Amino acid sequence: MRWNLPVSEMPTTWFNVVPHLSKPLEPPLHPGTRQPLGPEDLSPLFPMALIGQEVTTEPTVEIPGEVIDVLRLWRPTPLVRAVRLEKALGTPARIYFKDESVSPAGSHKPNTAVPQAFYNKAEGVARLTTETGAGQWGSALSFASAIYGLECMVYMVRASYEQKPYRRVLMETWGGRAVPSPVDDPSHPGSLGTAISDAVKDAASRADTHYSLGSVLNHVLLHQTIIGQEAQAQLARAGETRPDVVIGCCGGGSNLGGISLPFVPDGDVRLLAVEPASCPTLTAGKLEYDYGDAAGYAPLLLMYTLGHDFIPPSIHAGGLRYHGDAPIISNLVSTGRMEAVAYPQTKTFDAALTWARSQGTVPAPETGHAIRAVIDEALAAKEAGKEKVILFNYSGHGLLDLSAYDSYLQGELKD
Ligand SMILES: Cc1ncc(COP(=O)(O)O)c(C=O)c1O
Fold it and tell me: Are 130 and 214 in contact (CB under 8 A)?
């Protein structure tokens, strides 16, 4: 069962959670002076429109018409009820998911890549640099750069660069260029932190270049709220008043924020972040100011962090290997508005297989984390003999992650 929104009902504004937070966000700090950052500190890296969105307290932000035109290539995405999974689990829970895997790059990432490329182009920037973990974000920004005629340079976490050659091919197909990071140490597996350092350093050294981040920052989560807003309209069409719980996997927090932030004002809706046990930022990190990157070039953010020099093990869900979390997600967890849980990777692949063998599609390993929690919530409902409405973000497909599935199927995957 699926609920499609007509294109004419696609949201025309992004939802800003900032006015709804019970505790105000703390400002980012300059990495050198540790003083609050001003717009002039960020302007070598970001266009003014995005700097404005980073700090806005307006309840909504208008989506430019030119951006809506591009998002319409695949949006609105379907809301689907996972009836076959419900049957396989024998649960009374009703499980709904937003299918973000239908985008050109196969994940939620183009939802922010498109507006980021648009605003940079509008302010005369010719070239973008970025980091990528699994390659999902790098391919999304390569796609968006192709749409707006920008050059795109992607620093890809070396472990993923070696595990996922087809993501590199995808980036090159859209005209982007990918190199393994860290660039100066070929023996280093890399992390999102090292790749951010490489990308920020490159952007800061060239006047024609800006930096683009695929997660973590307020404006990125803002762009992703189109997911949760569409889900609200679609759940109403499905006859549901509200979900009991909204679930998303959490790397930097963008797909989780995208689906869950519009539900923050409704205190009856539980929000659940799912992270890997090997990079347990929300469940075992400290809430403190830390650098956004490994080398300390990026601003300090108040977030749950394992330390900017933490190098997570090379788990296959490359997009979840970030040492910190979005300040907005950290804020929600610290105030108790959002819960967090961590799973070892074999349990998440086990869940991904249960999904593939009931629903048919092959989820990204990151998405497998969300599915693990969905299954556990559904089994808890079965145990309690209670109905429950579960909504989760199917953040991406795993058709370019088959080497990870191969390792799992061969019994080679370790926790
Ligand atoms: C499919 C997919 N899901 C989730 C994530 C995690 O990122 P975020 O927490 O920003 O949504 C990624 C990151 O690359 C991804 O590719």
Answer: yes
Atom of ligand 1 nearest to the CA of 214: 10
Cis geometry, peptide bond prior to residue 76 (ω within 30 degrees of 0): yes
| Index of the ligand 1 atom closest to the CA of residue 215 | 10
Compute the chain's Rg from CA coordinates. 20
Please tell me the distance between residue 395's alpha carbon and the centre of ligand 1 in angstroms: 7
Q: State if pTM tops 0.90.
A: yes
Tens of pLDDT, residue by residue over 278-337, are 999 999 999 999 999 988 989 999 999 999 999 878 777 778 888 999 999 999 999 999
CA distance 136 to 364: 10
Domains observed in the chain: 67-107+224-409 (3.40.50.1100)
H/E stretch holding 367 reads helix 365-384
Scored b (16 or more CB within 10 A) or e, 152-190 reads: bbbbbbbbbbebbeebbebbeebebebebbbbeeeebbb
